Amino acid sequence: MSLYNIVNMALPLLYLLPLLSLISTSAHAANFLIRNNCPYTVWAAGVLQCTAYGAPPNTLAEYAHNQFSNLDFFDISLVDGFNVPMDFSPVSSGCRGPRACTADINGQCPNVLRAPGGCNNPCTVFKTDQYCCNSGSCSPTDYSRFFKTRCPDAYSYPKDDPTSTFTCPGGTNYRVVFCP
After folding, report:
1. What is the block-wise mean pLDDT of the chain (180 residues), using blocks of 10 residues?
2. The pTM of the whole model exceeds 0.85
3. In this structure, is residue 151 part of a structural domain?
4. Most buried of 10, 37, 95, 153 (most Cβ within 10 A)?
5. Is residue 25 part of a domain?
6. Distance of alpha carbon 53 from alpha carbon 179, whole angstroms
7. CB count, 10 Å around CB of 138?
């Protein structure tokens, strides 16, 4: 066999090396079990990718996979208001998540925050820095305390990180239940 034939046979393998390195890298995939126990539709069945932004009020499950130190960061957020009770928790061992947010926030919502289908956040209603935290420095308000009292582990205002962000090792599996 000539050197020319050996080189021609080896070239396709060289092109495969970058692909093989991508395939063989170690990755931790997370699985999500999503269940709707509500008597109404919470999401469009079969839609796995967002096609638009929702309008407040929205209860949010926020998630960032394999971030700093190979940790998942996740939370339940009421910063955009509340419209559906939710449980967002790890099902793998080794970490804990927020307690389910199951309070009757819609039924107890202050009149000024009431909205069709939910309870607005104060930023949507008042549009001031005190509630929107646009300047980057803000603190809890009576309205954020209303949400925090009912769902202690959920974000209640934009700077509520210390009591509302949870971490688990990358690759942890999660459960999201609407109307738990």
Report:
1. 41 35 49 90 66 82 88 92 94 82 96 96 93 87 96 91 88 91
2. no
3. yes
4. 153
5. no
6. 22
7. 18
